[in-house]
Write a structure and sequence with these properties.
The chain is of the alpha+beta class and about 300 residues long. The protein is about 30% helix and about 20% strand. The protein has helices spanning about 25-35, 35-40, 50-60, 70-85, 130-145, 160-170, 175-190, 195-200, 270-285; strands spanning about 15-20, 40-50, 90-95, 95-100, 105-110, 120, 125, 205-210, 230-245, 250-265. Helix 4 crosses helix 5 (about 130-145) and helix 4 (about 70-85) crosses helix 9. The longest helix has 16 residues, at about 175-190. It is globular. It starts with 16 loop residues before the first strand and ends in a 25-residue tail after the last helix.
Length: about 300
């Protein structure tokens, strides 16, 4: 079940999110001070001990979840974190903060690991109560649609809906392109961009995660876009093997994963972000927690408390 299922739209809401009506005074003022993504992003870096995680993945591949990858574990950790800290599933538009009414993650996939291989973007939708098995199933469902026998998105007869949209937009003459995107940005700012378009857009997602380590690079701080409602961009880097000396003098081999995040400061406070990143780190380090649904799904409280009648 998606966030806010059954809630009726009110004046000020958007088709992809509900207006947060209980912002504190500072949070109301901040979007007028930090008016752009480049004004408001915060950078976060950490390394996560995945020694146990790698053993877990090997065990799962041999039985319950064939083909399981670390990338999929990270997506499952992100989904579970949203279920516990829903404030990170918000976005800012037109100086207002909205709670997203769905969970959608984005990833880029190359059509063949070569310079000729073009990029395609996958955007699975998830539910807050999804387990690791369900997250993997949904990612694989999108991944299996990709035709790896061709390197060109335009030549792919089974191109994704987003790829089809990209091809259509790229065919617009240059002198009209600027106007088209000006119009799209205006419509998005006022909440008038059709849901059919935002559903296809990787710029309108809960989070975008890129795997730099898959082609031998370390994590980078990737910008978040001025267009759209994306509030969190994460990058996975290379794994680092470290031999650590223990108190008893023994040496243990540990494997760490480097991750970097760029996040929009306007959507929630530092406490929520700090709690969210602790959850992400915990779920990646102990992925067995993701095999069962969460005990509770925390709802994002976005309405002012009703005043008691005297």
């Amino acid at each position: 079940m998606q966030p806010f299922a059954g809630r009726k739209r009110r004046w000020g809401d958007r088709n992809d999110g509900y207006l947060v009506r209980n912002m504190d005074p500072m949070s109301k003022v901040v979007p007028y001070i930090m008016t752009t993504m480049t004004d408001s992003w915060v950078l976060f870096e950490d390394k996560i001990d995945i020694t146990h995680t790698q053993e877990f993945i090997r065990d799962m591949r041999a039985g319950r979840i064939p083909g399981l990858t670390l990338y999929q574990v990270i997506f499952a950790a992100m989904v579970r974190t949203v279920s516990q800290v829903p404030q990170i599933n918000r976005f800012e538009q037109n100086r207002r903060v909205y709670a997203r009414n769905h969970i959608k993650m984005a990833m880029v996939v190359k059509k063949g690991m070569s310079l000729a291989g073009e990029r395609t973007t996958l955007m699975p939708f998830f539910d807050p109560a999804d387990t690791l098995d369900q997250v993997v199933e949904k990612i694989n469902g999108e991944m299996n649609k990709i035709d790896r026998t061709v390197t060109s998105v335009e030549e792919d007869e089974n191109k994704t809906n987003f790829d089809a949209l990209e091809v259509a937009l790229s065919s617009i003459p240059n002198f009209l392109m600027k106007f088209v995107f000006w119009l799209l940005k205006r419509l998005d700012k006022w909440g008038l961009l059709p849901r059919a378009l935002t559903d296809l857009s990787p710029f309108h997602t809960t989070a975008f995660i890129t795997n730099m380590g898959s082609f031998g690079m370390d994590a980078v701080y990737h910008h978040i876009y001025e267009f759209g409602t994306l509030s969190i961009f994460g990058a996975i880097g290379n794994k680092e093997v470290v031999y650590e000396t223990q108190r008893d003098g023994s040496v243990k081999r540990r494997v760490y994963l480097h991750m970097k995040f760029v996040a929009d400061e306007r959507i929630t406070d530092g406490f929520s972000y700090g709690l969210a990143f602790k959850h992400i780190k915990s779920y990646i380090g102990k992925p067995e927690k993701l095999l069962d649904p969460p005990e509770t799904v925390v709802e994002d409280v976005i309405d002012k408390p009703k005043r008691k009648k005297k």
